[in-house]
Amino acid sequence: MSQKNQTLGEFIIENQASFKYTSGELSRLINSIRLAAKVVNHEVNKAGLVDIIGAAGETNIQGEDQQKLDVYANDKFIQTLTNRNIVCGIASEEEDDFISINSQDENNNNKYVVLIDPLDGSSNIDVNVSVGTIFSVFRRVTPVGTPVTIEDFLQKGNQQVAAGYVVYGTSTMLVYTTGAGVNGFTLNPAIGTFYLSHPNMQFPENGKIYSVNEGNYIHFPQGIKNYIKYCQMEEGDRPYTSRYIGSLVSDFHRNMIKGGIYLYPKSSKDSNGKLRLLYECNPMAFLAEQANGKASDGFNRILDIQPEELHQRVPFICGSRNMVEKAEEFMRMAQ
Ligand code: AHG
Ligand code: MN
Ligand code: MN
To answer: Where are the transmembrane segments (predicted)?
Structure first.
């Protein structure tokens, strides 16, 4: 029986049997993420002390400056998943193309691919504000034992078998789902163990927080502008409170606990918004739905979108169910 203060290791073993494909492979995968998260956590925690803050001098395929910690976290997660020979493919925000693992090895019978945002909210690193890691897991669709192809990665979010995030915050937490609810584990840094601190996490159906980069207001679609004005109106339980950290992981985490909505809409500058479907929106949408919340692009369920490319962007509205539905209503009315 899951109970508070159970360790993540114990929880994984106990819940392995309830997962519909029980091979232990997914458990080993979550274990590897746990290990990489601890290593990255250690580096993030001493960020002010060592030469790890600042730009790495490279840009990723999306033209964004890579921070040293982006590169570090990317390397650590890829190394851990590769060395332990657990997955057959990895796609990352920081890699132009997907990585095929042991594609030459006929004995590679691994079935899972991982998509990852190794360090989310990198613009917050230099100022000691929470950052995170986001991951999404699928079963491959091409035959086991052959090299992975792009098809294995361009699956709809509703095919995810696991997803989660690590938030490197005032405490470090690993929050994940394998499709049977959402559980949160807090790292005890003194002994390096994650403990179940937040069993069965749920978004409150209603909330009073809205999270959006309002500096872009002028560029937002009319439906979003109207919804923001609705949030600010004096009526019933409104006006809502505005909270925006600028790290999706942290904004999502707060809203799941307190009740709220996160919006990164399209704008007249970016026709698909900013967030990436495969390693930001899909995993967060899976978590949201597993926690009784909702995730939408304004009109459609995020998890039903057919991805066309690895680094595809999509407008993202996510959080407490009734709030997301209200925002969708404003989008429809402004059509
Ligand atoms: P990343 O650091 O992985 O590129 O992601 C940053 C994302 C997301 O975490 C955050 O919510 C959003 O960018 C913030 O964007 P703005 O600065 O445009 O508000
Ligand atoms: Mn990100
Ligand atoms: Mn990132």
So the answer is: none
Task: Tell me the CA–centroid distance for residue 144 and ligand 2, in Å.
Answer: 30
Q: DSSP per residue over 230-295, as a string? A: HHHS-BTTBSPEE---S-HHHHHHHHHHH-EEEEE---SS-TT-SSBIIIIIHHHHHHHHHTTEEE
pLDDT at 45 over 80: yes
On whether 29 is known to bind a ligand per the annotation, the reply is no
Answer yes or no: is 274 a known binding residue: yes
Nearest CA to ligand 1 atom 15: 246
What pLDDT band is residue 104 in, cutting at 50, 70 and 90? low
Mean pLDDT along residues 174-195: 96
> What ligand 1 atom has the least distance to the C-alpha of 213?
19
> Where are the CATH 3.30.540.10 domain residues in the chain?
8-198
Q: Could you tell me the fold of the domain covering 8-198? A: Fructose-1,6-Bisphosphatase; Chain A, domain 1 (3.30.540)
Q: Is 70 annotated as belonging to a binding site?
A: no
108 Cβ below 6 A of ligand 1: no
